[in-house]
Amino acid sequence: MGPLFARGALALLVVTLPLAARGQTYPAKPIRLVVTFVPGGPTDIQGRMLAEKLTQRFGQQVIVDNRGGAGGNIGMELVAKSPPDGYTIVISTVGTWAVNPYLYKLPYDVVKDFAPVTQVSTSPGVLIVHPSVPVKSVKELIALAKARPGDLNYGSSGVGGFGHICGELFTMMTGTKMTHIPYKSSAPSLTDLIGGQIQVLFNNAISTVPQVQAGKVRALATTGAKRLPVLSELPTVAEAGVKGYENSSWSAVAAPAGTPQPVITRLHKELTEILALPEIQQRHADVGAQIIASTPAEFHAYLTSEIAKFGKLVKAAGIKAAAGG
Length: 325
Hints:
- By secondary structure, this protein is α/β, with parallel strands linked by helices.
- It is 44% helix and 19% strand.
- The chain has helices spanning 2-25, 42-58, 73-80, 94-99, 138-147, 162-174, 186-195, 205-213, 261-275, 278-286, 296-317, and strands at 31-35, 62-66, 88-93, 114-129, 153-156, 179-182, 200-204, 218-222, 248-256, 290-291.
- Strands 1, 2, 3, 4, 5, 6, 7, 8, 9 and 10 form a 10-stranded mixed β-sheet that branches.
- Helix 2 crosses helix 9 (261-275).
- The protein is globular, with a radius of gyration of 22 Å.
- 45% of the residues are buried.
């Protein structure tokens, strides 16, 4: 029994050592962090923040690769089809993860083709208008939209994106009509609102709060269940008269399915420790974002529930990908 036991233990050691070593030696070369939108938007801002800290901790460069287009699908497909070795990972948002499966015939499965690492944060949106729009409250915006159906243009990061879902919810719940203008990211939509090319925007707080504070846009309300501490004077859309209205965005990091567990564990450890840093906590709080830092299992469960929730919403609102690509 002794020699047999020894041989069995040795065999087990031979099998498990490569996996353990893989986690200990990872990363041995630069990592690509795919951001599924063009530069300048909230996902890009957050991705670069995380990439900078990961580079410092890993001693290997973490390169941000912006792959905007198709509501985030281009970047997601790239990662889904990348080698499952931990050297290509993705950060994307609720629209890409939970809404797009109902809008597009995707060449990947958001659940089966990805290995969850962590949900990073959640943040409400801010309903903003160009200063030339003659409204200073949600009620005044509703009145104007009813008086001029279809005349007001609102932007978003694309069909099914956070801003689009916010806008569809708003018009559906208020009986108004506004024209949706989809962009490749929320960054150009915010630029066009500041420039007066569009009039209305429901936009992620991360990139919007600084513009509100600089006086470049007029904020009417926030889209979450509670007020934003950083913009505490603003009511929520629900408080402003649209009872039951609530929608928040979130972001999450994942790797291709089949990525070795030790690599996922290492990525999760580093990311959650980064998200716990006082500097990172403060930078998120300053723009109204709440850090989540969930486990892979928790993010998987949350994603499953969000997919079910948004499936019902897409059907109820009649949202179609053909409306804007």
